[in-house]
Specification:
Number of helices of chain A: 5
Mean pLDDT of chain A: 96
Helix content of chain A: 10-25%
Largest interface: A-B, 58 and 58 residues
Largest sheet of chain A: 8 strands, antiparallel
Shape of chain A: globular
Oligomer: homodimer
Chain lengths: ~190, ~190
């Protein structure tokens, strides 16, 4: 069942704790009256401060133009409860359907950007396009996370990780090795 | 216990099945007599053909110069059995220790590049530096996977996913939604 997550402000320099493990994410965007959501799996954290995330958004995606022209998007973190929505969004196009309405997701006002956030996701990272120098060659966008919100619980949400070919891996056990880390590598 | 994986050739255009879920990886490199291994978590698939992977390798890493000057590396996939090695490698520097010797890992000859592969890893992706235009600004390297090998079993290895702060997530259950995908999105 889809939850609706109450989210609190979260430090932008720590979004790696959600994004570095490689979850599939839902990217929401808006341009004028248009809005859209896409499923995205090709992303990486690039820097803590400023909080940079790089990702590939193929030009064939309906979201490409919305994101490039508005210079904004929200990276939303879905949990396992949204698996069917993640799959549905990835297998339809915003040129034909309103993804929010079709998949029963609720747009909520973002705090800093104009693109909507998704109420049913457990964390929302509001992004501004920081560097488009690799967009032409690789469809690679560098975003700055300018505002982040995350549900306080669960601390480690059950995320989805795509392996290709229609198959997902669900996040598993948490193992701490804090005691073996150099202090300067810990938060 | 550390296994030693027999690996077979694997199609380079399919490395996303291992890398897209976001595992921590071990990057091995060599330059002249020097060799090194680093732990790396900031990476993303960028293209199927050519098989491109982008990643951040901070200039402070001993491996930075070896990789940049040789223009090569191997991205090796460790499993849960190598957790302590992953942590140890990430918390020491190749300027002071031989990581292969210190952590009991076996360098094996790669097929195409000069950098060694790691016998105890279940997949090895041999890479050539394809684009260094974002290295100065972001320490962001674009590699082409020129040759890949992977163990046939397990099909979905138990990978490690870093969440920051000394804490790892282990890969969990596999869920297929193949039946809900458009055929052109499947392998």
């Amino acid at each position: 069942m889809k939850g609706r997550f109450q989210k609190a402000e979260f430090p932008v320099e720590k979004v790696r704790c959600y994004l570095e493990p490689g979850p599939i994410v839902l990217v929401s965007s808006a341009l004028g009256e248009e809005r859209n959501i896409m499923t995205m799996g090709w992303h990486t954290v690039m820097e803590f401060t400023p909080s940079l995330v790089g990702c590939v958004i193929a030009e064939s995606n309906h979201s490409f133009r919305l994101i490039r022209e508005s210079g904004e998007c929200v990276i939303n973190l879905p949990t396992r409860a949204l698996l069917d929505e993640v799959v549905g969004i990835g297998n339809t196009t915003g040129a034909e359907v309103d993804k929010f309405a079709t998949f029963g997701l609720t747009p909520e006002e973002s705090r800093v950007v104009n693109a909507p956030s998704i109420l049913e996701c457990c964390a929302c990272f509001e992004c501004r396009l920081a560097d488009d120098s690799l967009v032409r060659k690789y469809n690679f966008f560098v975003f700055e996370v300018v505002y982040a919100r995350a549900a306080r619980r669960p601390k480690h949400p059950e995320t989805l990780h795509y392996t290709g070919n229609g198959v997902f891996m669900v996040s598993g056990k948490i193992l701490s090795r804090r005691a073996k880390f150099r202090p300067e590598l810990l938060d």
